[in-house]
Amino acid sequence: MLVPAIDVCLTAAAAEKIADVYAIRGRDAVEGGTPIVDFEKTMGDLEIARVMYYQALDLLDAIREKFAFKCEVRILARFVSVCVLEFHALLNEKRDMTHPQFMVDEVTVQYEKVINRLETEKSVSRLEEALYINCLFALGSAYVLFAERYVNHPHKSIKEKAVPYLRKGLRAQKALLQRNIDPQQKCDISVDILSIYDNIIQLKRSDLERLERRKTSREELRTVAKEHSHFILSLCEHLLTMVTDADLPLKHKNFTFEICALHNQLMDLPYVRDNVKIYACRQVLTFLKQMVPIIVESDGAGGMGRLRTLWDKVVELLTAMLKKMPQCAFAKVALGHVQRKKPTDDVETFSKLILDTIDEAIAVFPSIDIAAELEGCF
What we know:
This protein is mainly α. The protein has a domain of about 160 residues. Helix content is about 75%, strand content about 0%. It has 15 helices and no strands. The two termini are about 45 Å apart.
C-alpha cells in the first residue's frame, strides 16, 4: 500500500523537528568558543541532527509534488548547516579530517538531487523564494568552505582537489543571483563569485604548469588549457554582467584592470585555439564600451583621465592581438579604426568617439560559436 505524499511529508517534518533540537544544542556549543567545552557530546548532538535530517530527505526523495520540494529544500538547508558546523568543529579542534569527507559526500548526494530544480523552479510566494534562497546560500557557502582545506594546502597537487568543490559552490552562487534577492545581497554574492573564479583560475594555471613540467601529452595539455580558458571567459562574462546590472552601485563596476589582465593571461595561454582568444578580445572591448557611460556618470567633467586610460587599454588590446595573431587580417583593420582617431579634451566628445570607435572595431570581428570551441567544458 502506497503511503500518501502528505503523510510522508508530515513524517519528514516530525524528524526535522527532533533534529532541530540537537542541531540548536550543537550549534550553541560550537559557537560558544574554542575549545568546545564537551567536544564528544557536541559532536554527538550534531551527528544525530545530521542523520535525522538525512533520513527526512530520503523520505522525500521519491515525491515530485511542489509542496514536497519546499519541505525538501528547507530541510536540506538545515542539513547543510549542521554539516558545516561539524566541519568547523573538527577543523578548529584539529581533529582527524577523514570524517568530514564523508559529510562532504553526503552533501554532494543531496546537492545533485536538487540543484537543477533550484536553478529553474519558479516560486509563487515570498516564503518559497526565501526557502530557495536560503538553501542555495547554504550550499554555496558550504562548498567554498569544503574547498578551503585544499586551497590553503602547501602542496600544489593537493590544492587542485579544490576545483570540483569550487565549481559546485560557483553554480549555487550563480543560481542565487537569479533569485529575488536585495541589491546588497547581489553585491556581496557577485564579489564572492569573483573570488571563486579567481581561485579556480589560479589552480588551473598551476595545474597546466605542473603538467608541462611532467611533459604530459599535448592532448591532455590542450584539455586543461581549454578548461582554463573557459573559466577566464566565464569570469569576463560575469564582470560584464556586473557592469550592466542596474542594481549594483558604480563602485562595484570598475574592473577595467582586472578584465584586461585576464585577457592578457588568455592571450599568453598555450594550447588554446585562436578563436577563443578572438572571442575574449571582443568580450573585453564590449566591457570597455560599457564602462564609458559609467565613467561619465560617476566622474562628470573630471573623468577625462579615466577615459584616456580606457582609450589606451583599447589600443593595447588590439595591438597585442595583432602581434599575437598577425595572420588575422581583421585585427589589423580593427586597430586601424582606432589609430585613425584622435582623442579630444572634451569629455562628452571623447566619450562618443570611444563608443563609436569600439563599435567600428567590434563590427569587423568574425562571429564565433564559443560553445562549440569549448565543447566539453560546460
